[in-house]
Amino acid sequence: MDHNDRLPVHEKVAVLLICILFGIFVLLSQWNNDPLFFEIGEETQIINNEVEVQVFGEVANPGSYWVQKGTPLKDVIIKAEPTADANLKKLDQEALLVRKRVITIPKTKTITVFLNDAMERQTLKVSEGTRRGDLTDIKLKYPNRKLKDGEEFHVNRNEINQDLDLDVAIYP
After folding, report:
1. Which of 20, 29, 71, 127 has its CA at 20 to 30 Å from residue 106's CA atom?
2. Which positions ≥6 away from 49 have C-beta within 8 Å?
3. 42 CB contacts (<8 Å, ≥6 apart)?
4. CB contact set of 68 (below 8 Å; sequence gap of 6+)
5. CB-CB neighbours of 47 under 10 Å
6. In whole angstroms, what is the distance from residue 17 CA to residue 78 CA?
């Protein structure tokens, strides 16, 4: 290596300072979740104002969706069209999207409960985690106990609470 090919110390320091300042600018921009922007004449061009959200699982239209930063998650879920078996209970649908997300919507797990009354036995399919008190408005012993698959539940059909969102299916 020729001695004349080296950069003087003050030029090395200048290059290093420019790199450090640019790195700080980028880190601060990302840390604050602000888009990077550059002034071009009187216009401001915004870069990275969209985020990608990938939706998979129990939806009719799985795939990638590009939305504006700050869009509620529920808007993307509506576009993906959840199936009837989709379990959306654990998703914070009001969450605002600010960075790439991958969402897998699980299938609702169901259990079978047998309803016994004086006249007949019926089969009821309910979401896993349903509690005894969720099924009826009448006062029950242990209303907070979760129902188990195959459990027999003694209640009249007309006492079942029809107003609840339980994804309930009753079979004769």
Report:
1. 71
2. 35, 68, 69
3. none
4. 49, 50, 51
5. 10
6. 48
Half-sphere exposure of 52 (CA within 13 A, CB side): 4
Question: Could you tell me the CA-to-CA distances from 169 to 60, 158, 161 in Å, in that order?
Answer: 22, 14, 13
The CA distance from 25 to 32, in Å, is 11
Confidence of residue 161 (pLDDT cuts 50, 70, 90): low
Q: What is the DSSP letter of 3?
A: G
Put simply, whether the predicted model's pTM sits higher than 0.85 gets the answer no
Amino acid at 53: V
Alpha-carbon gap, residue 76 to 112, rounded angstroms: 32
Share of the chain above pLDDT 90, in %: 26
- Residue matched to tokens 């797990």: 109
CB atoms within 10 A of CB 69: 16
* CA contacts within 13 A on the Cβ side of 123: 8
147 contacts 126 by C-beta, under 8 angstroms: yes
Query: Taking the CB of residue 84, how many other CB atoms lie within 10 A of it?
Result: 7
Q: Which amino acid, 93?
A: Q
